[in-house]
Amino acid sequence: xTGEVHKVPKxxxxxxxxTPQREVNLAKVQQLAKQKAVVYHAxxxxxxxxxxxxxxxxVDSLNQVLTAMADTKSAPQVAKLAExxxxxxxxxxxxxxxxxxxxxxxxxxxxQAVKGYxxxxxxxxxxxxxxxxxxxxxxxxxxxFDHVVVKVGATIKLAKVDINELRQLVPLAHEFQKxxxxxxxxxxxxxxxxxxxxxxxxxxxxxxxxxxxxxYKAGGPNAPDIAGLTRYGGSNAAxxxxxxxxxxxxxxxxxxxxxxxxxxYFDNLVAQAIANGGHRE
Length: 281
Hints:
With 281 residues, this protein is mostly helical. Helices cover 50% and strands 5% of the residues.
């Protein structure tokens, strides 16, 4: 201590009554001010777009589900799913039941909006998202479409989807199959036994319909002579592909535990469908 007395202005901490230190601090502030701000880049959407008539189901919440899934061992399959969607520019339409009935007022009300989203070159617009059997259908698509349609309830929120629960869906389907009591479909299992119920079921139905598109874009091959995980998957080649594609995306490891040949088959089929995206007319 020197015994030197300083007069410090009221409200100023004595530790700052030192000119060289203030100059150093000022220099640091000026240096930081000259640095360029880091440019923020929003994360790339795995699914570029989606149309929905339900607030809780939209392109952002859909991508949040897929991003969470990409943080699991399903990351390679999610990446391939995104690559397939982009290769064929496959769009997604989520519609309430009232908007899916071919002659319903709700279907007529959204006609122009859906048409603007899909920009079809042919087809009567309402046939792109509505059909006569809408009450018993959870989703549909067509060989001539480049989109899938999923029916959603007004209260569905993709934010309530539990990724770990969805991944456990595949080994659960396997367990039912081993007991000789195969469940009807992957969607039915999660809607019946899962905590997320129809919230999770919406994602599984969406993947199922994308499985149909994968089948179409890969040339519509016959199903391998391998028993399916679900009864619906055993009904015909189209449903076999749709059911097992959903399982492949959700949990390839569990699918391989059921049957390695099925898992390998979809590795190759997805690669083929993506490659076919570069040869569209």
